[in-house]
Amino acid sequence: MTYYQGDFEVRSKADASPVTAADEAAEAIIIAGLKRLTPDIPIIAEEEAAAGRTADVSAGRFWLVDPLDGTKEFVNHRDKFTVNIGLIDNRQPLLGVVFAPALDTLFAGAGPGTATVQRGSEAAKPISARRIPATGAVVTASQSHGDMNKIQELMDLHSIDKMKVVGSSIKFCLIAEGEADIYPRYGNTCEWDTAAAHAVLAAAGGSVRSLDGTPLLYNKDKFLNDEFIARGLDG
User: Fold this and answer.
1) Strand bridging mode 182-185 / 162-165
2) The domain 11-126: what is its CATH number?
3) In CATH, what class is 138-231?
4) Average pLDDT of the chain, as a whole number
5) Cα–Cα distance for residue pair 131/47, rounded to 1 Å
6) Under 8 Å between Cβ of 204 and 176
7) Which residues is 97 bridged to in the sheet?
8) pLDDT tens for each residue of 18-48
9) 155, pLDDT greater than 80
10) Domain extents in the chain
């Protein structure tokens, strides 16, 4: 937040995505904290990976860290950027925390029925995804990414007439809270973009599946995700 409230330089990584000193400083703090907390669990973090430094995760349990998800939101001083920390075990998200610093809001989940949200100094409260309504469902999508033609096709298919546009992994959390129903992601994402919020949504009763209907799994080649659709409760 110190960087967010002041001036900061925006640089481009090899893949042309933006990075700031805030990404790097936050990642250093998170990695140090996780190493103290769980010294035997390897960590895959976005900026470390961008620099070509990735740990051996063949044992199957590892942390996935995105220190600043929604860098474009951050750069443009839109408050809906997040810090994502997810724990993967046997290719599935076991635990996740998603913190939105500018909103002082923390989402967390670690297994079915454990999803919570905490806003400011309020006590954490349980949240759960709602059953997707036959009419009046709400889709959420990114302000910076997405194939609007495909999203429109999905909206027509599900009789959706409302869209909530928001950046970062908050989209998953809107579904986990029952404020939205479907988040389609067409295009590239990395595993650290989704792991934490996937765990929160799964804990709230929702799901994340590839376009072929199979569950989105982790520890894939180069930690790259397939296109996917995150959803609330079906039926």
Assistant:
1) unpaired
2) 3.30.540.10
3) alpha beta
4) 91
5) 37
6) yes
7) 85, 108
8) 678 899 999 999 999 999 999 999 999 999 9
9) no
10) 11-126, 138-231
Residues 103, 73: contact at Cβ < 8 Å?
Answer: no
* Closest to 70 measured CA to CA, from 147, 168, 145, 163: 168
Secondary structure of residue 191 in the 3-state scheme: helix
pLDDT at residue 145 tops 90: no
Q: Is the dihedral of CA 228, 172, 71, 67 positive or negative?
A: negative
For residue 94, what are the CA distances in angstroms to 5, 35, 79, 101, 159? 34, 18, 27, 23, 33
The 3-state DSSP class for residue 140 equals strand
Beta strand 207-210 pairing with 228-231: antiparallel
Residue 172, helix vs strand vs coil:
helix
- Percentages helix, strand, coil for the chain, rounded to the nearest 5? 25, 30, 45
Evaluate if pTM is beyond 0.85. yes
Q: Long-range contact list for 216-222, CB < 8 A, 24+ apart?
A: 217/91, 217/92, 218/64, 218/88, 218/91, 218/92, 218/93, 218/191, 219/57, 219/60, 219/62, 219/88, 219/91, 219/191, 220/191
- DSSP strand pairing (162-165 vs 138-141): parallel
- Token pair for residue 201? 């949504």
